[in-house]
Amino acid sequence: RKEVEQDPGPFNVPEGATVAFNCTYSNSASQSFFWYRQDCRKEPKLLMSVYSSGNEDGRFTAQLNRASQYISLLIRDSKLSDSATYLCVVTPPSGSARQLTFGSGTQLTVLP
Amino acid sequence: DTAVSQTPKYLVTQMGNDKSIKCEQNLGHDTMYWYKQDSKKFLKIMFSYNNKELIINETVPNRFSPKSPDKAHLNLHINSLELGDSAVYFCASSRDWRGAGPDTQYFGPGTRLTVL
Predict the structure, then answer these.
(1) Which residues 12-31 in chain A show a CB within 8 A of chain B?
(2) Min Cα separation A69/chain B (Å)
(3) Which of A16, A31, B5, B30 has its CA 20 to 30 A from that of B75?
(4) What Å distances lie between residue A53 and A61, A72, B63, B102, CA to CA?
């Protein structure tokens, strides 16, 4: 089983749509969780951290369910500029070296 | 004012050659990383250095040798290049290598290596 699993997509949605991405992770002791965004032929960039209480940043909402080892990202009112690959990322338990473990990414295309 | 920079951006070379990729960060971070992103876009950690000391060494062929002359630089030297080494290599840095809270890694723009 992969450490971090994501639906690869692609997701093709019209502008203004709401889209949700899901991610599961295998190590129940994983410590930190993130969503990164990677544009075509560019480096990954942090989109947002994910907290157990859930967190929101403008049109983006991230949720973490530790019991189910499940992370989600909701994008409301999609914009053309949201087109990218969204990477679910986890870190190992506290005290371990902080390498990021990436999912394979979910590709989103927002259509005009 | 690039935070994490890599050179070269593109590298095309023949099988069997030896090549190096350089990485520098001006963020004052203690920890630097090398990641490989293959043709399927899967991004995987290769190495990590904290204050010039190796802390992560994933299962990577020993043809790959990282070198950290100081904590702002982490270079990657690859010997006897093979076709399967073709990928995008990303350097990254973070403030700390472990801790209780979230930490952000900043990535360089990537080096696209093509082995012919």
Answers:
(1) none
(2) 17
(3) A31
(4) 11, 12, 44, 15
